[in-house]
């Protein structure tokens, strides 16, 4: 056997056992990710009451939405984040965080942008999509390093994609013939080979960005060897929103928008007891092409740029998240990301089918050989 043939056999064995050992958690992570690609559309279909009645894009001052949301959140629960609609026809979302039985609860309030009328409110963590987010991000076991487990599953999936590309690489066919349906192969084998090669590059991109998200510190250290990365600020622990901020939401947003003349408010995070500053994210061009992040000290009103404009570190992190989640990347990339979740699940099933068929064929071949040996021995 040649060295190349021996390497292919080892690689095929590795590729096979990847599917057999981590097939089930891999399918769970991939399928939950596919569902989350269409999160907004599916949630709008499941909850039509959250759709604004007006489509004219009129917006009210931020304080109006925060005030209306506070009325339905209940006593002791204060708004923490305001998210403006990215497009006409989407609602304003005000969220509030509190801790219940050691778990951070995320309550959301949906409002009509034009009227400020409350459309709905719900505990997002208890919803279907809240569960899917936990399942995709940490296998719903964050207390047991679930995010790191998902990161290692991503590394294994990356190895499967690269090894699958190597095993597929044609030795006879050239051009488009190598990318098409192959005569003589079972349907399951064709789905595995043809689907695998067509989705391989998007799958590698989505997997690499997922690994970055799961291991941010290590990923930033690796990327720091090739580009300047601004030091990442430590994430503030859970804290209650300030009951009486020194500044109002309208004043804070107006001050930031003075520095971005063509900007539009995207996200406003209110100050907390352990983080006494406002965080303001602004769309700097039409739509959601680019955003700028600002921090506003509640006590002094001092505004500072907080999006890593000089070093680009935070921009890289946001880009990785956008690519992985297909946020604002257009319908083509959304479809490709959706397929990078659905097809690996199909590959796990077809791979097992191919393995069982190969085992059955080897068993039949061995039985024939034994029959020939018995026949020659009896003669």
UniProtKB/TrEMBL annotation:
Domain of life: Bacteria
Transmembrane spans: 16-38, 149-169, 190-213, 336-356
Keyword tags: Membrane, Transmembrane, Transmembrane helix
Signal peptide extent: none
InterPro entries, alphabetized: PepSY-ass_TM
Pfam entry (one): PepSY_TM
Alphabetized PANTHER family for the sequence: BLL7967 PROTEIN, IRON-REGULATED INNER MEMBRANE PROTEIN-RELATED
Name under which the protein is recorded: PepSY domain-containing protein
């Amino acid at each position: 056997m040649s060295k190349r043939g021996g390497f292919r056999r080892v690689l095929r064995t590795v590729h096979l056992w990847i599917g057999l050992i981590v097939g089930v958690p891999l399918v769970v992570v991939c399928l939950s990710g596919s569902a989350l690609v269409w999160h907004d559309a599916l949630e709008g279909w499941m909850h039509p009451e959250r759709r604004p009645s007006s489509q004219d894009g009129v917006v009210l001052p931020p304080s109006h939405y925060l005030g209306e949301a506070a009325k339905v959140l209940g006593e002791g629960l204060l708004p923490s984040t305001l998210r403006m609609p990215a497009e006409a026809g989407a609602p304003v979302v005000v969220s509030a965080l509190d801790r219940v039985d050691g778990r951070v609860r995320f309550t959301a309030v949906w409002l009509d942008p034009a009227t400020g009328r409350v459309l709905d409110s719900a505990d997002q963590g208890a919803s279907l999509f809240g569960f899917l987010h936990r399942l995709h991000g940490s296998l719903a076991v964050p207390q047991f390093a679930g995010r790191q487990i998902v990161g290692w599953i991503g590394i294994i999936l990356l190895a499967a994609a690269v090894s699958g590309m190597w095993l597929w690489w044609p030795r006879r066919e050239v051009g488009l013939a190598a990318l098409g349906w192959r005569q003589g192969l079972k349907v399951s084998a064709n789905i595995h080979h043809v689907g695998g090669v067509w989705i391989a590059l998007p799958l590698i991109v989505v997997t690499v960005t997922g690994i970055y998200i799961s291991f941010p510190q290590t990923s930033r250290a690796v990327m720091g060897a090739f580009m300047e990365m601004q030091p990442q600020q430590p994430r503030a622990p859970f804290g209650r929103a300030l009951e009486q901020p020194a500044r109002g939401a309208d004043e804070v947003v107006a001050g930031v928008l003075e520095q971005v003349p063509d900007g539009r408010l995207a996200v406003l995070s209110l100050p907390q007891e352990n983080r006494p500053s406002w965080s303001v994210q602004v769309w700097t061009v039409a739509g959601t092409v680019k955003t700028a992040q600002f921090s506003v000290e509640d006590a002094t009103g001092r505004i500072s740029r907080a999006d890593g404009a000089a070093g680009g570190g935070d921009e890289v992190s946001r880009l990785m998240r956008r690519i992985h989640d297909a946020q604002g990347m257009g319908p083509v990339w959304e479809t490709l990301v959706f397929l990078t979740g659905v097809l690996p699940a199909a590959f796990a099933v077809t791979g097992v089918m191919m393995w069982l068929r190969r085992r059955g064929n080897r068993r039949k071949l061995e039985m024939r050989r034994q029959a020939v040996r018995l026949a020659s021995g009896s003669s």
